[in-house]
Amino acid sequence: MTVQRHRDSAAATVLVLDDNETNRYIVGSWLRRAGHTVVEAADGTEGLALLAAAPDGELPELAVVDVKLPDMSGFEVCEQIKADPRTASLPVIHVSATAIELSDRTQGLHRGADAYLTEPIAPDELLATVTAALRYARARRRAERLATRVAALNSSTLAVYAAKDGETFTAAAAAGAAALMESTAVAVGLSPDNHTLHLAAAPESTPAGSGGPARADEARLLDLLAEKALGDRTGTETVVLPGDEWRALTCQDDARADVFPGDVALTLARTKRGRPPVAFAVRADALTGADDRELLSQLAQACALALEALRTRSEEHALVLTLQRTFLPDRLPEVPGVDMAVRYEPAADDAEIGGDFYEAIRTPDGLLLAIGDVAGHSLKAAMIMGEVRHALRAYAIEGHDPQSLLKNLDALLVRVRPSMTVTVCLVLVEPGARRIQVANAGHIPPLLRHPDGATRYLTEHGPLLGLNLPHPPPVAHDVPEGSTLLLLTDGLVEVPGENLDESMRKLGDTLSRNPAGIEELCDRLLATFGKGKTDDIALLAARLD
C-alpha cells in the first residue's frame, strides 16, 4: 500500500445516526475497534444539527444512517446532507433491516447515498465499505483541491505576467502565493531596472498584495535570502527557516515581512545566471506534501520568467531610448535676441518609442526652428525620424527656404520611405526676431504668446510629408518684442477621450498665465500636461527678445 493510499484509508470521525440504541452501540463498537472516532445521533434532526454545529475543520468524514428514523427517513437526511455545500462531499452509507428490497436500495442510491447495506451486516463488510467510501471521498477532495489550486496557479501566473513594474509584480506574486498555498505570503524582488528592491505581503486568500519599494540599502536582502537556498544557481529551491531566522533576515529592515508566527518555507527562483532571484515565503506548515512544493516551485519559476521578461523589456527600452536620443540635437545654437529651451519626454516605460523630433539651425536667412513626428511607434519610426532630421539639417544649411525644405523632404520620403508619413512644422525667425515665417506640413500649429498675455495658434498648414502633394509658401507673422513661440508634438495635448481642440485651448490658457523664464515655462507645461502620457513629447520654446 502506497503512503497516499494508506492516508486515504486512515481512521476518521464517523457519524452513526440510528434511533435504536443497541444498533448504535454495535455499529459504534465495530468502528471504534477499527480506530475510528464515533459521534452518535438518535434521529435525523439531531444528526443534522450536529453537522451544522461542527466547525469546518472538525466535521465528521462519513455518516452511517439508518433508513427508518422516527422524524424523517434516512433518504431525506441524506438529501439534506448533500444539499449543504459544507457537507455535500460527506459520504453517506445507508443501513436498514426492513428497507431491503431492490427498490429501496435503488432509491437510496438515487437520493445521494454512497453505499447501501442491509442487515444482518458482518463487521468486516461494514468496515470495508467505510474504508472504500473514505478512500474515494478523500481522493475526490484531493483532486478537487488540486484542480482549484492549478486554476489559482494559472490566474497568479497571468497576473504576474500582466505586471508593468516592480511594485505591481511583487504585489501580484505575493497575492498569488497566498491564494495558491492558502497561507500568508511575502514576495521579494528587484525592480526590472535592478535599482529598487520591492517587498509585498499578502494575507491568506487575499487577491491583492500590499507592498512597495524598500529602501535602497535593503537590496542586500535578496543576496541574504539566496544564501539560504539557491545560491548563484538557476532553477528553484525551497528550504524551511525557523521563524527567528526569518525575522532576523528581513524584519529589522522591513516590518511588512513580520507576518509569520512560526517557521517559514522560503522558495527562490532564477532563470538566468547572474540575475537577481525572486523570493517567496509562506508558512512552513502550508507545505504538507510533494504537490504543495511542486505548485509553489511552479509559481516561483513562472514569476522568475515574468520578471526576466520585464527586465529584458526594460533593458531594451532603455537601449532604444539611448539610440533615439542620439538622433536628436545634443545642444541648441546661441542666437542673439532669441532664448530657447527644449524638452523631450519619452512615453511611459511600457510604451514603444515614437518618432518625435525637434531641430534649431542657424541658416543664411535666420534661425530655423523645426518640430515633427513620424507616424507610428517603433524603432523604425525613430530611425526614420533620424533620417528626416539629418536631411532637414543638410537642406537648411544649403540655404533652402521653408517651402523648398518641405518639398525636398517630401520627395525624399516618397523615394526612400514610400509607406511612411511625417508631420513637420517649420518656423523661420528672421534676423532681428521681429518677423517669423511658418510652413506647416500637417503638424500641430505653433502657439504664439504676445507680451500682454494674448495667445493664438498660427494655423496655416499644408499636407503631410510623404504624400507627394504640393506645399504652399510660408506665411509671415510680425511678432512684438518679448513674444514667446511654442512648438510641440501631439503627445503634450492629446488625451484619450478628450477633444483635441479643448486640450489645445487649455494649453493656450496656461501659456497666457505663465510669463515665466523660458526654462521654467517648459517645466510647468510638462508638469501640467505631460504626466502619464502614452506618446512621446517634444517641446521647443523660444522667447523673441
Give a summary of the structure in a few sentences.
With 545 residues, the chain is an alpha+beta fold. It has helices at 3-8, 21-33, 44-53, 74-83, 102-110, 123-162, 166-181, 220-228, 243-250, 290-326, 379-397, 402-416, 500-513, 518-529; strands at residues 13-17, 37-41, 62-66, 92-96, 115-118, 185-190, 197-202, 210-213, 235-241, 264-270, 278-283, 338-345, 355-363, 366-374, 422-429, 435-441, 447-449, 455-457, 475-478, 483-488, 537-544.
Residue share in helix: 40-55%
Unreliable spans: none
- What is the total tally of β strands? 21
User: In one word, what is the shape?
Assistant: elongated
User: Major sheet: size, sense and barrel closure?
Assistant: 6 strands, antiparallel
Structural class determined from secondary elements: alpha+beta
Radius of gyration: 37 Å
Oligomer: single chain
Number of helices: 14
- For the termini, the CA-CA separation is 95 Å
Strand content: 15-25%
Query: What's the average pLDDT?
Result: 88
Strand arrangement within the widest β-sheet reads 8-7-6-11-10-9
Summarize the SSE layout with pairings.
Blueprint: H1 3-8, E1 13-17, H2 21-33, E2 37-41, H3 44-53, E3 62-66, H4 74-83, E4 92-96, H5 102-110, E5 115-118, H6 123-162, H7 166-181, E6 185-190, E7 197-202, E8 210-213, H8 220-228, E9 235-241, H9 243-250, E10 264-270, E11 278-283, H10 290-326, E12 338-345, E13 355-363, E14 366-374, H11 379-397, H12 402-416, E15 422-429, E16 435-441, E17 447-449, E18 455-457, E19 475-478, E20 483-488, H13 500-513, H14 518-529, E21 537-544
Parallel strand pairs: 1-2, 1-3, 3-4, 4-5
Antiparallel strand pairs: 6-7, 6-11, 7-8, 9-10, 10-11, 12-21, 13-14, 14-15, 15-16, 16-19, 17-18, 17-20, 20-21
Helix pairs in contact: 3-4, 6-7, 6-10, 7-10, 11-12
